[in-house]
Amino acid sequence: MTRSASTLGDGVAANGQKALSQKSQNGTQPEPNGKLQDADGPTEKVELRKKVTLLRGISIIIGTIIGAGIFISPKGILKNSGSVGMSLVVWIACGVLSLFGALSYAELGTCIKKSGGHYTYILEAFGPQMAFIRLWADLIAIRPAGMAVISLAFGQYILEPLFMPCGIPPIAVKLATGVGITSIMYLNSMSVTWSARIQIFLTFSKLLAIATIIVPGMYQLFKGETKNFENAFDMSNIQLSGLPLAFYSGMYAYAGWFYLNFLTEEVHNPERTVPLAICISMAIVTICYVLSNVAYYTVMSAEELLASEAVAVTFAEKLMGKFSMAVPVFVALSCYGSMNGCLFAISRMFYVASREGHLPEVLSMIHVRRHTPQAAVLVLYPMTMLQLFVGDIYSLLNFMSFLRWLFIGVAVLGLMYLRYTRPELPRPFKVPLIIPAVFCLTCFFMVFLSLYSDPVNTGIGFAISLTGIPAYYLFIVFDRRPKWLQKGLDSFNRCLQILLEVIPAEH
């Protein structure tokens, strides 16, 4: 444990809990060991509870994978694959490759039963410095920018029915986005149960939205609307140089299968639930993606699909008339579900990193009544709002996009490394080594593709991530801070703990 963490453990816990005992209502007082002592005698453990069932696990994975992309713009794959038939092959292949990654993470999640996802697996396999670099890039750039982008899509589409056919003022979009982000943060701070219930509702909503595309599309197909599938594998427009880019787009569309691993400690019976939830979710998502694209092609030619700004809206206008106005609402709900699932999972990574001494200890504390990691949930809020209103979010995402696949590849490489360095680890779910090997090569190929196709932005992103090395030595290794600075940091953390009403979890 670092000096900053241990100092907080001595000062924050003692003083913060003392203040909290004066603030607590309903006759409860927090004890130093993390329990709430009721006036009548019984105790209640302050911890993150195992509330993630199989259904909730499936809803988290599906709800974060399926965002706005399948409704708005599946044309990146069509453009780079060169034909209708090849685009469907790419959708299926990317689903299979993503399943390989998901199965690898299922093994990691059942043999390393800690929350935290990528961060935890890199920490266990390759040590704290590599894990901190991943955490640093996530905290300062990737997660705030990613949250801001999906939230902007929510703001855009929730307002679209109100402003049709006029354009939406940019400030209105940002204000609606800010409301959406704030509500998600509030929800996740207040209740794990309600966050999970709303995630289930939003997941069923987006599956219903996809069904409203698939069912009419399949009806058209069975009626004989197959003209757009004639010469589906026409090789004249296929360029081998475009196929890797098509796979790149496809893998991004499936990204999100790893989020359940961020909250392994809260999963009920993880040895069974994690692999089962991952396999069921990936099967559902792959079927939905492929059948949605087939449905699009029953009413749109390849040229029309490439020309459309919002494919689902164009599809609905051709088949459903005025019902197409409901599509933006479905897209907004889909984005909201992705925001909720992403924050629910990512906050657990910050919680675990704090527990490991890589972030201030207050982030690993639990609210005394609500049993939520409130500080870890709220830590992204200032950065996300700042980037929303003043930052160039999309360029930042371009800088950082390749880092996702680099570190996922490193985590899966860690699975193979742990097979040889720690063979004694219990592995209730074990995959053949060919599966992580193929997926790992796919990840590193996509990283190489980023370096080749966009060396400037990729280089900038790589440089941003490397700032994690001096940060690691400055904040974690170097422990000789001036007393006045350490005292100020301790006072700030004490105030934050008292304000948020959080105490250390009982282990």
What characteristic shape results from the CA principal axes? globular
Level of helix content? Answer: over 70%
Strand share of the residues? Answer: under 5%
Q: Give the termini separation.
A: 16 Å
Q: Please, what is the oligomeric state?
A: single chain
Q: If helices are DSSP runs of H or I spanning 4 or more residues, what is the number of helices?
A: 21
Question: What is the rounded Rg?
Answer: 24 Å
Strand adjacency order, main sheet? 1-2-3
Sequence stretches where pLDDT stays below 50 over 5 or more residues: 1-42
Structural class from helices and strands?
Answer: mainly alpha
| Sheet with most strands | 3 strands, antiparallel
Round the mean pLDDT to the nearest integer and report it.
82
Beta strands, count: 5
Order of helices and strands: HEEEHHHHHHHHHHHHHEHHHHHHHE
